[in-house]
Recover the amino acids of this structure.
C-alpha cells in the first residue's frame, strides 16, 4: 500500500479560493477603519492643542490663542500668544480631513481658563467624507466637551 504525502492541486486551489473570499470580505472593513482613524486622530490632536493653549493661559497668567487657518491646504492650527507669535509650531490635519469653526477662527483662552468673546461656547467640527466630530469649548470654564 502506498502512503500519500502532501496536498493535491485541487486541495490547494480550494484553500486559495477560501482565503481570497475572506480577503474580499475584509476590504470594506479596513477602508472604513482607516478613514475613521484619521478623523479620530484629528479630533484628539485638536482637543490636545486646545487643552495646551488653556494650560498656557492659566500657567502664564495671560491670554493665549488657538488659531485655525482654513485657507491653507491641508488645514492648519497652532497655539499663539496674545501678540500672535506661534508658541510651538503649526499642525496640519491629515489628508481628507478638514474643520470648520462656528464663531471664530481664533479661540482665546483667558488666565482664568475661560474664553473671551460673546458666545456661550465655541465649536470646532472636524469632518471627512465618512462623518464628522464636534469639539465644544465652554466659554466660562474652558472645558472641552
Amino acid at each position: 500500500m502506498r502512503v500519500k504525502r502532501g496536498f493535491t492541486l485541487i486541495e490547494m486551489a480550494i484553500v486559495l479560493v477560501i482565503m481570497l473570499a475572506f480577503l474580499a470580505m475584509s476590504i470594506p472593513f479596513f477602508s472604513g477603519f482607516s478613514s475613521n482613524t484619521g478623523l479620530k486622530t484629528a479630533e484628539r490632536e485638536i482637543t490636545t492643542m486646545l487643552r495646551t493653549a488653556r494650560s498656557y493661559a492659566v500657567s502664564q497668567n495671560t491670554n493665549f490663542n488657538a488659531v485655525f487657518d482654513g485657507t491653507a491646504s491641508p488645514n492648519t492650527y497652532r497655539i499663539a500668544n496674545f501678540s500672535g507669535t506661534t508658541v510651538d509650531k503649526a499642525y496640519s490635519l491629515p489628508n481628507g480631513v478638514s474643520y470648520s469653526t462656528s464663531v471664530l477662527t481664533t479661540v482665546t483662552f483667558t488666565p482664568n481658563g475661560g474664553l473671551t468673546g460673546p458666545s456661550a461656547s465655541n465649536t470646532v467640527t472636524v469632518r471627512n467624507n465618512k462623518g464628522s466630530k464636534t469639539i465644544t469649548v465652554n466659554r466660562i470654564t474652558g472645558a472641552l466637551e
